[in-house]
Specification:
Elements: H1 3-12, H2 16-25, E1 30-35, H3 38-47, E2 51-54, H4 56-62, H5 73-86, E3 91-94, H6 102-114, E4 119-123, H7 143-156, E5 163-168, H8 177-189, E6 194-197, H9 205-213, E7 220-222, H10 232-238, E8 242-245, H11 248-267, H12 280-287, H13 289-299, H14 301-304, E9 308-311, H15 321-333, E10 338-341, H16 350-355, E11 365-368, E12 372-374, H17 376-384, E13 389-394, E14 406-409, E15 412-414, E16 417-419, E17 427-430, E18 437-445, H18 447-460, H19 469-478, E19 484-488, E20 492-494, H20 498-513
Parallel strand pairs: 1-2, 1-8, 2-3, 3-4, 4-5, 5-6, 6-7, 7-8, 9-10, 9-11, 13-19
Antiparallel strand pairs: 11-18, 12-20, 13-18, 14-17, 14-18, 15-16
Helix pairs in contact: 3-5, 6-7, 15-17, 18-19
């Protein structure tokens, strides 16, 4: 079932049972894949299967117990309902022998129908059953008893949409074709919406023989686990309406996980298997992380209004990992919910890094140059600045243009200190001879300010010379954007060279060494 069909069903509000009945009404075979958890169900839907089989074998195996009615109805229902909640395609539940007599079946139907299951499959074995592929005891229930279960199932459902499938085990138990056909006809007369003919030989001939002799309009379901050489198309041409690949996801997973774990132990690392296993991005996609992030933006405002922090690209060898960690901790301490360090993401320009960030953020964005180390206290002041654009301005010394970005401020010097004459201090000029401060390599942007920064970065995209944050701040000021100045006199270091970084690393390591 493609994405377009899924959207149609979702928009129309059709139940899983109604969707399954529509599939039965269409030409060709309805193909289902077995699953034992929502992740497997989503993989089946993503692959294009029409529905999901909530496999009793898979669920039992995933719990480490035999498929012999050991798990209770509640345990199996819990899994089936989780599958139905995770996908848009119909879920058909393997309900073994109905978990008891007709009373149990009626209870089961009510619970499964309420959980959104499209169909239930009940097999004509005595309770407790044994998996059909296990040699030994395969006891069939009397026909009359099983017909009573089917009639009870149909009487218990609250809508006409739920599909009740009667699973015929006569060929599994060695009773022969005549018994299989007569049982199937009896089950159809008792109200079954479909019959499932099961077999465990390697040849599809018994199934093809059953289909050739089946004359009732009741749809036939097949499970080609052992007679796997025949295609679903061939089975459909022979008269089958539903084809279930009941346990192949489980079996594939066992092989893949076994090989992966063996490789890790053999190689003492995971490098050899990284290109053969799904990336974490695929895991997040299957989990629905993109939808959750969209919901966060729309509904979880307390999260999205917290600051985010971005470290821009800088000299690749000027900041050792210990100082990067120190910078990240400082950004976290000033309230940053996320810290994106683009300086550690390979050769990228400042413009590329800024334009690569998601725009959807309802809180401030702190931006720090990659060759700057800023302590938490100045960053807290910056994050608290009530402005579309704010920068850290170091007023402790007058900078030279070749050392950094000189800033002219609206504040004035008075008795060796600086004061603001009404309102908040602002940057009123950049690069002027008699400047008041130096840009300390960190800025904060409101959502509106960050949008303006992106516009400035976009205009610089085609420049031959790479643009720094200094240049973009200058562009904003030239464009008439008001830039708040958060004045500081300490709390930051500029690490232009490897020697600068070594001295800084030693400085921060010294207190630890003396303890």
């Amino acid at each position: 079932m493609g994405a377009a069909t899924t959207e149609i069903h979702r928009a129309s509000g059709l139940s899983g049972a109604r969707r399954l009945r529509e599939l039965f009404a269409r030409p060709g075979a309805v193909r289902l894949a077995g699953a034992h958890n929502p992740l497997g169900a989503r993989l089946a839907q993503r692959a294009g299967f029409d529905g999901v089989w909530s496999s009793g074998l898979e669920v039992s195996a995933s719990q480490g117990v035999p498929d012999t009615d050991i798990l209770t109805m509640s345990e199996l229902l819990s899994v089936a309902s989780s599958l139905a909640a995770a996908v848009d395609v119909p879920v058909v539940a393997d309900c073994d022998a109905g978990y008891g007599n007709a009373h149990n079946v009626m209870h089961m139907v009510r619970r499964y129908e309420a959980a959104g299951i499209a169909a239930v499959s009940i097999e004509d074995k005595r309770f407790p059953k044994v998996n059909s592929f296990v040699p030994g005891r395969q006891e069939l229930a009397p026909v009359g008893e099983f017909c009573g279960k089917l009639a009870a199932a149909k009487a218990a459902q609250s809508t006409p949409d739920l599909v009740v499938i009667a699973r015929i085990e006569a060929l599994i138990a060695g009773w022969g074709m005549d018994e299989a056909l007569s049982r199937g006809e009896a089950y159809a007369r008792a109200g079954a919406d479909a019959v499932l003919i099961h077999a465990k030989g390697s040849s599809p001939e018994p199934i093809l023989d059953f289909l050739a002799q089946w004359t009732l309009p009741t749809p036939v379901v097949v499970v080609p686990t052992t007679y796997h050489t025949i295609t679903a198309t061939e089975l459909a041409a022979a008269g089958a309406k539903m084809v279930i690949y009941a346990n192949h996801g489980l079996r594939a997973g066992i092989t893949a996980v076994t090989d992966t774990f063996a490789s890790i132990l053999r190689d003492d690392r995971t490098t050899g298997i990284e290109d053969r296993i799904a990336p974490l991005a695929t895991v997040f996609d299957l989990q629905g992380m993109a939808v959750q992030k969209r919901n966060e933006v729309e509904f979880v405002t307390s999260y999205e209004t917290r600051p985010r922090a971005v470290v821009l690209p800088g000299p690749s060898d000027a900041m050792p990992s210990s100082l990067r960690d120190h910078r990240t901790v400082a950004l976290r301490r000033c309230g940053a919910e996320t810290v994106t360090d683009t300086s550690a993401q390979g050769e990228r320009s400042v413009v590329e890094a800024l334009l690569g960030l998601p725009e959807a953020h309802h809180g401030p964005t702190l931006v720090v140059c990659g060759d700057v180390l800023v302590e938490a206290d100045p960053l807290r002041l910056l994050a608290a600045a009530d402005a579309d654009v704010a920068v850290l301005a170091d007023v402790s010394a007058t900078p030279r243009r070749d050392d950094g970005l000189p800033l002219t401020l609206s504040s004035v010097a008075q008795g060796g200190r600086r004061v603001v004459q009404g309102g908040a201090g602002e940057v009123v000029g950049i690069g002027e001879p008699d400047s008041d401060a130096e840009f300390a390599g960190a800025a904060a942007f409101s959502p509106q300010g960050f949008a303006a920064l992106r516009v400035a970065a976009e205009k610089r995209r085609a420049d031959v010379a790479p643009a720094a944050l200094d240049d973009l701040v200058a562009d904003l000021l030239a464009a008439g954007v008001r830039v708040r100045a958060v004045e500081i006199a300490s709390g930051w270091l500029e690490l232009r060279t490897a020697e600068d970084a070594e001295r800084a690393a030693a400085l921060f390591a010294a207190p630890e060494a003396g303890r």
